Amino acid sequence: MWIYEKKLQYPVRVSKCDPRMARYLVEQYGGADGELSAALRYLNQRYSIPDKVIGLLTDIGTEEFAHLEMIATMIYKLTKDATPEQLEAAGLGANFVNHDGGMFYNNAAGMPWTAAYIATKGDPIADLYEDIAAEEKARTTYQWLIDFTDDVDIQDSLKFLREREIVHSLRFKEAVEMLKADREQKKVY
Amino acid sequence: MYDAQWRDWKPFVSPNDPCPPIRVKWYIVPPNQYIHFQPMNLPQFTLEEALQRGTLWPALFSPYPSRRMAKGGKANG
Questions:
Q1: Rounded to an integer, what distance in angstroms lies between the CA atom of residue A103 and that of residue A30?
Q2: Does A121 touch chain B (CB under 8 A)?
Q3: Residue B65's pLDDT is what?
Q4: Which of A23, A60, A161, B73 has the fewest CB atoms below 10 angstroms from its CB?
Q5: Interior CA angle at A133 toward A63 and A47, to 5°?
Q6: Which domain holds residue A87?
Q7: B9 has a chain A CB within 8 A of its CB
Q8: Which pTM value belongs to this model?
Q9: pLDDT tens digit sequence for A141-180
Q10: Is B33 close to A180, i.e. CB distance below 8 A?
Q11: Does A8 reside within a domain?
Q12: Do the beta carbons of residue A168 and residue A142 sit within 8 Å?
């Protein structure tokens, strides 16, 4: 059960008409290390993880959907007023033919999102390591996206998202430490 | 000694669960989780034992008994 707030987690302003950037931002929308993958990965792993860390996966998984909305907003703003000619020039011709101005979950190269991007092993240590790796890969993708635009307003939103990946990675590492704990404790069965 | 690698947790059990509950679940935390950079001169297995176990160092060894084994294995529950 979720409660929806009709606002973005962090403001998204796009000040430069640059449909080309939409083509690359979609990597974080429907790519392997994107926000959809992140949200579905964490919210799905929750069921088999020890109770101590279920809440963390719920919270972070939910926040990833808030990030997904921010990315969607950027892509929408960058493409909604583009003509077919402009989209084609931006490398979005194939995307236009298939979806017009609609959003779709594919990566920057046009490959549709697949559940193969996410994993659940059922082993809490393995699952949390998957999550830590995913956060670091998403952080990296944000860095390359920030490198790829000179729009300071998009950069600002992307820098916020990049910072969240850093925080999430640390929280997952703390979760690993919590699950490693009680090694010294004497157990009597 | 190696038994210390196991952790247990107690999943939530609802009175409305359809199947008999498994009250305790187990997971293993292998020793690599605590060794961030292996120190020099750790004690070693004999070479024959090392070949059989997959590691030269007892500090890195992590046995994994099958959950299918009734006794000695970490069957859930």
A1: 10
A2: no
A3: 87
A4: B73
A5: 55
A6: 19-180
A7: yes
A8: 0.89
A9: 999 999 999 999 999 999 999 999 999 999 999 999 999 9
A10: yes
A11: no
A12: no
And the tokens for A129?
Answer: 């390591």
Q: State pLDDT tens for residues A35-94.
A: 999 999 999 999 999 999 999 999 999 999 999 999 999 999 999 999 999 999 999 999
- As annotated, the active-site residues of A are 35, 64, 67, 135, 165, 168
pLDDT tens digit sequence for A56-69? 999 999 999 999 99
A80 contacts A101 by C-beta, under 8 angstroms: yes
Q: Are A53 and A130 in contact (CB under 8 A)?
A: no
Find the Cα–Cα–Cα–Cα dihedral A15, A20, A22, A27, rounded to 10°. Answer: -130
| Record: contact B29-A52, CB cut-off 8 A | no
CATH number, position A43: 1.20.1260.10
